[in-house]
Every structure is written in structure tokens, then in C-alpha cells.
């Protein structure tokens, strides 16, 4: 599979995944009146860094909402793994499962294989954050190849607020 690596200002492609009730949804669609959307891709329930990030994001969810940003999270986990993860997370935003390897590749995410069966039973995406503006363009994106490299959520929120309040352009679009 080729890696299409989405670029800043690209329109986010449709991402069909499943919710906790196993209903298919498109992650790009808004379920609130927030004009912007942030899609957080996490490694899966096996990752303590992801659990910490999701719990931190839950504490900041109101701040993101007040800034006009709808927040969702998704992984390549199964329904059973997502259900198990609820034992470790206390979230107040939608979380989804079933991100496919093709979707991970199309998003330009780095994909890892488990180190052992104790970790998980499938290849998984390393962390990624996609911030969509009201036109579903990639206003901001962060893609990591390691669980240890993630943006600071306070700094990210500040950048989103600044961008929205000042009509800050999408950066990183220069083509030689």
C-alpha cells in the first residue's frame, strides 16, 4: 500500500469507523455545532501513554468545545478492546474503533506491529492529530512514529484559539 500522506490544506477524506454501539459513522462529519473538529488517533487500549492523553483531553474537553472544536478519538482496536479500555479511561467525548490499515496508510500515519501478544493482536497506528477547519481542510496535523512524541494539549488549544480568532492561514503549504 502506498502512503498518500495528507498535506496541510487537503480536504480530510471520509473515515468510516464504528462507535461503541458498533454503528458505522464517518469521523469527518460533525455531531455538534462546533465549526472545527479534532480527530485524535491513538495506538489502542494497550498503550498507557494513550490512556493518559485521552484522560487529559477529557479534562480539557470543555475548553476545546468553547474554542469551537469538536473532539473525537479513534484507534484500530476491536470493539472488545475499546470496551476493555473504558476500564482505564473516563472520557466525555466520542471514541471510535476499527480504523483499518488502509485508512491509517491513507492518512499518512506510521504503523507498528505489536511487540508481543500481551501488547495487542494487530498492527496499530502510532499517534496522530488532525485538526479540521470549517471547510474540512487540514488546518493542523501532527503525526508521530512513537508513543513518546505528542503535542502538548494546552499549547495545541492555544494555537487553535489563535488561529480561529485571527484567521491565521494554514501553514506548511509552500511548494517548490
TrEMBL record:
Keywords: Oxidoreductase, Peroxidase
Residue intervals of the Thioredoxin domain: 6-165
Oxidoreductase is among the record's keywords: yes
Organism of provenance: Pseudoalteromonas carrageenovora IAM 12662
Protein's name in the database: Thioredoxin peroxidase
PROSITE patterns hit by this protein: THIOREDOXIN_2 (PS51352)
Pfam families hit by this protein: AhpC-TSA
GO molecular function, one term: peroxidase activity
